[in-house]
Amino acid sequence: MNRVVHPIEVESYRRLRARLDTSHFPPLTRAVVERVIHSAADLGYATDLVMDEGDLEKAHTALHSGAPVVTDVEMVAAGITRRETVCRLRDAKSGPGLTRSAHAIRLAHEQVGPGAIWVIGNAPTALEELLTLDAAPALVIGLPVGFVGAVESKAALRESGLPAVSNVSEKGGSAVASAALNALLYHPIHPSEETS
């Protein structure tokens, strides 16, 4: 099923590309960078995001082959289009040394097992918890936002060696995390096709 792109989105990308040359990025990296920038109207993401094209290619294949998509919060899930997601935050409880977000990640891991794509845009503790599990993810989109724990949790993600999309600053959030996943969803399965 082809996605119908609204004229406003087409014009937004035209203006983005007029202000920032993204042509040097490999195809999937470019798709993620542009969609994240588009979602936040923040050109700084071009140098803030960290990802590997090979990891994105494997994740793209996994995503289009039906890998489960897990989110840390409903806001991230709401931003992901054309795909069902798993979010266990409503079922989670906080406890000593465990935030509700971290518990939700544990519950989701029990549900989906290995090979999922994890999209974390809100809670650094969710990302920290994921890193303690044997999740064997297809990809972790780790873009939690905030001044407490966000930078550190994203640095730990990069140090883990897991396939990931992250960024080095405090920036992030639900909109940019879902945008990164949507970039992979919208990108054609055949690399020779053009992206929006």
Q: Count the strands?
A: 5
Structural class: alpha/beta
Portion of residues in helices? 40-55%
Radius of gyration: 16 Å
Shape, per Cα inertia axes: globular
Strand content: 5-15%
Average pLDDT confidence is 93
H and E string: HHHEHEHHEHEHEH
Largest sheet: 5 strands, mixed
Low-confidence stretches: 192-196
Q: How many DSSP H or I helices?
A: 9
Largest sheet: spatial strand order: 1-5-4-3-2
- Report the span from N to C terminus: 15 Å
Question: How would you describe the overall organization of this protein?
Answer:
- This protein is an alpha/beta fold and 196 residues long.
- The chain has helices spanning 7-19, 27-40, 45-48, 53-64, 74-79, 100-112, 124-132, 150-160, 174-186, and strands at residues 49-51, 69-71, 117-120, 139-142, 164-167.
- A five-stranded mixed β-sheet has the order 1-5-4-3-2, sandwiched between helices.
- Helix 2 (27-40) packs antiparallel against helix 9 (174-186) and helix 7 runs parallel beside helix 8 (150-160).
- The protein is globular.
- The relative contact order is 0.18.
SSE diagram, text form:
Layout: H1 7-19, H2 27-40, H3 45-48, E1 49-51, H4 53-64, E2 69-71, H5 74-79, H6 100-112, E3 117-120, H7 124-132, E4 139-142, H8 150-160, E5 164-167, H9 174-186
Parallel strand pairs: 2-3, 3-4, 4-5
Antiparallel strand pairs: 1-5
Helix pairs in contact: 2-9, 6-7, 7-8
